[in-house]
Specification:
By secondary structure, the chain is an alpha/beta fold. It has a single domain, classed as Aspartate Aminotransferase, domain 2. It has seven helices and nine strands. A seven-stranded mixed sheet has the order 1-9-8-5-4-2-3, sandwiched between helices. The longest helix has 22 residues.
């Protein structure tokens, strides 16, 4: 008898961390900190440190991470963003949502990742940025790509949605360029309970703009709800 092997067994993953998640969920219920709040802030600090960046900004999903980063960098209508042809549709979709135009570049036939040569060949007078995509836990040669982007005056954004924890010669995924964009879709390398995303960056002004854009343009202040004595019980 042939037994089907599931592509992703989220139930098994959940059982491994069920006790810890139950305790964290109980804390959220006590404080009603469902949007932002202490739990998200703690995650942002930890994720930024893990990725070797100064800041992490939590967002709704990986597509928003890319779109908001492009918007925060002032990239939109009239601009082209180079993106590898071999990627998930969301990479190009986020560029369109930001008002810019995807310009597809070929990939290396061995690694299936973008190369500096392909990037340089795709640059036009309208090119404003390159969205370098990490796939299957692999990072491309970001050293060469970074040099090519800098030479052409392009913003360098990393789509690290499939490379949580990966490194390139000691550089963590997400730490390269102006910003690194992550997805925590349940089936990703590091999945959430539901959908989620984050942008990591060491640019303080970019992080501030991202925090404002994720909240309808408002300036980040006290998280809602305001911290109470009950919220401190959720600290580990």
């Amino acid at each position: 008898m042939i037994e089907a092997v599931p592509f992703s067994d989220l139930g098994a993953i959940t059982r491994e961390v069920r006790g810890e998640v139950d305790r964290a969920w109980q804390c959220l219920l006590e404080t009603s900190g469902f949007i932002g709040g202490e739990a998200v802030e703690a995650f942002e600090r930890s994720w930024a440190e893990y990725c070797g960046a100064a800041y992490a900004v939590g967002v709704a999903n990986g597509t928003d991470a890319i779109q908001l980063t492009l918007t925060a960098l002032g990239i939109g209508p009239g601009d082209e963003v180079i993106v590898p042809a071999n990627t998930f549709v969301a990479s190009a979709e986020a560029i369109v949502l930001a008002g810019a135009t995807p310009r597809f570049a070929d990939v290396d036939p061995r690694t299936l990742l973008l190369t500096a040569e392909a990037l340089e060949a795709a640059i036009t007078g309208r090119t404003a940025a390159v969205l370098v995509v990490d796939l299957y836990g692999q990072m491309p040669d970001v050293d060469a790509l970074g040099r090519a982007a800098a030479k052409a005056g392009l913003a360098f954004i990393e789509d690290a949605a499939q490379a949580h924890g990966a490194t390139w010669h000691g550089l963590p995924a997400g730490s390269v360029g102006q910003a690194g964009c992550f997805s925590f879709y349940p089936s990703k390398n590091l999945g959430a309970f539901g959908d989620a995303g984050a942008v990591v960056t060491s640019d303080a002004q970019l992080a501030a703009r991202l925090k404002s854009l994720r909240d309808h343009g408002r300036i980040t202040g006290m998280s809602w709800p305001a911290r109470t004595a009950a919220s401190t019980r959720c600290r580990r």
